[in-house]
Specification:
heterodimer; A: alpha/beta; 11 helices; B: mainly alpha
Chain lengths: 356, 297
Amino acid sequence: MTDAPAAPPAVRARGLTKRFGQRAAVDDLDLDVAEGTVYGLLGPNGAGKTTFMRMLFGLVGADAGTLEVFGRTWAHDGVATLAPVAGFIESPRFYPYLTGRANLRLLATLDRVDRRGDDADARIGGVLDTVDLLDRADEKVSGYSYGMRQRLGVAAALLREPRLLVLDEPANGLDPAGIRDMRALVTRLARSGLTVLLSSHDMDEVEQICDHVTIMSKGRVAFTGSLHRLRALAPAPTHLITTSDDLAALRVLSKAASRLDDVSVTTTHGALALRGPQAAIDRCVITLADAGVAVRTLVPGTSPLEAVFFSLTEPEDVVPTHSHQPEPGAAMSTRTSTAPKAAGAPAAAATSRSPR
Amino acid sequence: MSAPLTSGAAQAPATGVLARAPRAVPTRGGFPAALRAEATKLTAQLRAKLLLAACLVVPPVVVAGLAGQRPPSDTIYGRWVHESGYADSLLLLGFAAQWVLPLVASLVAGDTFAGEEAHGTWKTLLTRSVSRSHVFWAKCVLSAVVSLLALLLMAVSATVAGMLLVGTQPLVGLSGQTVGSTAALELVAASWALAAAPLLAMTAIALLLSARVRNPAVGVVGPVVIGLLMTLLGAVGGTHLLRRALPTTAFESWHGLFAAPAFTGPVWQGLLTCAVWTVVCLLLARVHLVRRDITGG
């Protein structure tokens, strides 16, 4: 007796390339999204995430390579490729002159929900309830807020009962409460067994929701693997401190370097950035206090995962100097905490494709 | 966002719509589904309703207005508008051919593709279970149906208004012969019917513009301007061959039916020309839509 063939992954891309003029939006991309995972696609703006998702939906054609969705390809299976897929690209758009419910009814018509033995109206009511839009369903979409349209987009996706839910920056443009609720919904959907492919440029979002991640930069894969593997690449956390005398603080920390050898100190705009484990940061604070330098503020800087993200996606010419040298200025990093390079972050090549 | 996004807590087990096993979306029946969806959108918009209402209401108003004025003798059948109601209908047909029928053709067709662009809804439409071809043909069929329905309403409205307000007297033919009332009614009906071919050609031009230019305003106004330019071009002397190749020339093909003896050469020529324009424009529009990358919205 032979084993049954392994089920194809939800998404498999091989050598996928898309050019707009001379610019490669997606460049020789290889990607596998296993069924049942919550997969994060990360990258700065222009990294190629949205173009990849448009290719997945058949909105944009590939110049080279293959893209399979549950083993189907657009070239061979046409629109049937989309049968197990739903989601939205960027912000979901609807017909403003129709109500939310009428928009969903129109989409249910296109999906032939009735032909699947469902009562379309009951199904529409169900998905509207899921995204908590039932009480506003009979208002025209032109009067919806951005967040309501995002929720209607999720409802429109759920209408298809997909196996793969594709969401392109679903929290984009939402207020903090909306972001929290959207993340909760995506988490809940993932727990229901859906495969979720989520693009974002927010590391925190991906960290909270996803278990696998691909980081894209300039159309290419800069990292792919589990979130656990990505965390292993992360440098020690950074803390920013302001003191009563930064120069004196640098001198004190430099003199104590033998006791603080697991901490790197860099200057930033109006603060000192300490990178090292929490216990070492504590020792720094105590050392400064003992030397009569007051620590006025101590705040967490870039998260370790963000630091990895920046190290993988930003140009090499902004690598900061990390030093115990007390001299401020040229020898010290002048990067602010908003986008520091991951000092000490392992080379991306450890788990990503080699640069070509 | 004032309301919570989820009706239940994030930790809650999947229930309701989320608990169901995903099922395959049907991949057949895409064209009827797309047609129903397009009809839903069209009937929800004021534009199509206003167009059809205008086609019904305006002709009687014009016929009534003509009754109290000196006949417009410089236009075809203008001098007979007080003599026979059929002349009023033909006068309106001749006038409508100048720019009204191109406008009728473009009001829905010119917006049908460009409107998706303006609303950013291409990605909504094309990420469902219908192919681009299904959507394309659904939009084309519906645009053609609206154009033909508008023409039918205009024809019936103009003819009935002429018959009721002026009368069903015999009509004077273009060769000076007298055409009996019944025969005149048949010829008037045939004349309006012949306008369907150039109307469909103008609809196809509007569809092509709408798909290519992606701007609703250009999609609607463009065919009207093109129609006027074609009419002007056709009026220039020494352009006989070019004139025969223009779809707007077919708007006048009914003239031969009112000559004695009647001649139908322009009718067949017009039908052929319009068929070519229609097919070419639709094919170009389809190729463009099927091949293009949807990057907006």
